[in-house]
């Protein structure tokens, strides 16, 4: 038995130092400050928590008994899964997924300063929930707290509770299990609560925000900064409607994959890139006379600034019974390539060289004095048409206030929006804009950041709380799993106390080594 020792539980799980019992607490529990560690001890919550625990003792004991079942299941399940994925599993993706959940985030994850703030606050909140679980469980068993402390070790926040360890040891084993499993149980419940709030966020914010109509631009950098501004809504990408951030990511990935496939196709002209016959424009023949000839430099087509290389699409003749579905027709010839001004093309009528007959009987839908031309594309120089609307301009707000029907968004897009052509690298385009799926209903532009910040906070808290629940389930030094395993071995085995301590020590050493190996393995895979 450990004599005169206050048991401490915390996220960082620093080595425990001897602490005087509760009745001798006078000056030894002052706040600690050093170059690598500082803490704040709180005594004001001792009595309120104790009264709350004693008042609802029966309900709380039932609550924490459920948590005991969860904690024991987690101890066995998480330990077995960790051993399996480290030594028995050959599925690297599954192993990485579990390791990332266990340790919160991948070590190779790049974290910005704003994300670091989310992580710090989420960690502090999750650790506090963990420790309040222990504190309420102790109070429900009639054990008075010594203090609750919040600390920062190096750069990592944490919390702990101090109490009379001897008094807990004198109580039944099930009581100890309820106390030790309380932190894990509260982290798991808190994680589920964060997940539920994430799922219900569109419903909760419905009175103030529209959801999944079209993604709203929060921040924009080069190369899209010359076209978009914060507050603009992206309506479509290459003619496909965009309703969410997921749509935006999926559509850009699809376009990038498509141009890469075209670049390896036999119809990829050497030095002239790839041509998509489904992306054509009816260009007046008079404008073709002003076009510039394409130059070749380093075996690649080159046009002046603001100009793009185009080739003529020879349209499908509907009188010929040839099924062109799923295949490209004769896309063009090198001698027909011209450099045309991008701004002159964007507002022209669309045409399609894939044999889709329109109402006028023409498969390209161009008049006799027009030609159907398609832009030449390279993997790092893609032609993308983006339609947007300025939702919070003065004209847009006036139009919204005057229209009350369901076609308001369409009218705003037509009147207060526009279309531009982006020619460049797809990856740089995707990463140059930060989007949110929420649009303020009442035109309060400053509130556009609130849903995104709330969503980020919930996601970070979900991951960290889940990581704390899983980590503390492991039989590892200074974590709750060590104490849970000690009580289980003492309660469910008939071995002598000496043999029980040896088995406990072997299990804890093994659990610590396996956890370290899993972390190092994940780090090695992500970095190398």
UniProtKB/TrEMBL annotation:
Its main location: membrane. The chain crosses the membrane at residues 62-87, 116-138, 145-163, 183-209, 503-524. Residues 119-504 form the Peptidase M50 domain. The keyword DNA damage does not apply. It holds the Pfam family Peptidase_M50. It comes from the Eukaryota. GO terms for molecular function: metalloendopeptidase activity. InterPro entries: MBTPS2, Peptidase_M50. Keywords: Membrane, Transmembrane, Transmembrane helix. GO terms for biological process: membrane protein intracellular domain proteolysis; regulation of response to endoplasmic reticulum stress. It is found in: Endomembrane system. It is a multi-pass membrane protein. One of its GO terms (cellular component) is membrane. PANTHER family: MEMBRANE-BOUND TRANSCRIPTION FACTOR SITE-2 PROTEASE, PROTEASE M50 MEMBRANE-BOUND TRANSCRIPTION FACTOR SITE 2 PROTEASE. This is Endopeptidase S2P. It comes from Gossypium barbadense (Sea Island cotton). The lineage of its organism: Eukaryota, Viridiplantae, Streptophyta, Embryophyta, Tracheophyta.
């Amino acid at each position: 038995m450990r004599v005169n020792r206050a048991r401490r539980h915390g996220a960082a799980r620093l080595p425990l130092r001897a602490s005087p019992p509760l009745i001798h607490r006078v000056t030894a529990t002052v706040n600690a400050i050093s170059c690598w560690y500082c803490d704040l001890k709180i005594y004001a919550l001792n009595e309120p928590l104790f009264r709350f625990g004693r008042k609802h003792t029966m309900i709380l004991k039932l609550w924490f008994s459920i948590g005991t079942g969860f904690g024991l299941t987690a101890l066995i399940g998480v330990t077995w899964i960790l051993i399996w994925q480290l030594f028995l599993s050959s599925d690297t993706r599954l192993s990485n997924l579990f390791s990332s959940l266990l340790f919160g985030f991948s070590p190779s994850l790049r974290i910005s300063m704003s994300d670091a703030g989310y992580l710090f606050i989420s960690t502090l909140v999750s650790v506090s929930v963990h420790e309040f679980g222990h504190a309420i469980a102790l109070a429900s068993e009639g054990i008075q707290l010594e203090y609750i402390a919040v600390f920062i070790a190096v750069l990592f926040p944490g919390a702990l509770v101090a109490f009379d360890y001897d008094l807990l040891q004198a109580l039944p084993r099930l009581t100890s299990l309820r106390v030790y499993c309380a932190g894990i149980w509260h982290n798991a419940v808190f994680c589920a609560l964060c997940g539920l709030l994430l799922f219900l966020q569109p419903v909760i914010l419905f009175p103030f925000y529209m959801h999944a109509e079209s993604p709203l631009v929060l921040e924009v950098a080069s190369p899209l900064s010359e076209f978009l501004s914060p507050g603009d809504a992206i309506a479509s990408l290459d003619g496909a409607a965009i309703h969410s951030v997921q749509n935006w990511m999926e559509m850009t990935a699809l376009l990038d994959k498509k141009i890469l496939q075209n670049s390896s196709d036999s119809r990829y002209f050497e030095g002239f890139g790839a041509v998509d016959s489904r992306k054509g424009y009816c260009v007046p023949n008079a404008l073709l006379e002003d076009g510039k000839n394409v130059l070749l430099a380093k075996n690649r087509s080159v046009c002046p600034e603001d100009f793009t290389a185009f080739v003529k699409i020879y349209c499908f003749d509907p009188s010929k019974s040839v099924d062109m579905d799923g295949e490209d027709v004769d896309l063009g010839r090198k001698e027909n390539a011209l450099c045309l001004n991008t701004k002159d093309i964007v507002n022209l009528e669309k045409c399609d060289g894939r044999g889709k007959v329109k109402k006028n009987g023409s498969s390209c839908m161009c008049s006799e004095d027009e030609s159907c031309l398609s832009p030449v594309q390279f993997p790092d120089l893609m032609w993308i048409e983006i339609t947007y609307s300025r939702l919070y301009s003065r004209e847009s707000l006036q139009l919204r206030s005057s229209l009350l029907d369901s076609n308001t968004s369409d009218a705003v897009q037509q009147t207060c929006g526009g279309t531009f052509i982006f020619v460049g690298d797809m990856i740089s385009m995707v990463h140059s804009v930060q989007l949110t799926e929420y649009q303020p209903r009442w035109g309060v532009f400053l509130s556009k950041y609130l849903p995104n910040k709330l969503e980020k906070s919930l996601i970070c808290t979900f991951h960290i709380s889940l990581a704390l629940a899983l980590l503390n389930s492991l039989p590892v030094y200074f974590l709750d799993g060590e104490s849970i395993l000690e009580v289980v071995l003492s309660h469910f085995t008939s071995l002598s106390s000496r043999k029980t301590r040896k088995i406990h020590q072997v299990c804890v050493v093994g659990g610590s080594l396996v956890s370290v190996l899993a972390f190092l393995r994940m780090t090695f895979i992500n970095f190398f």
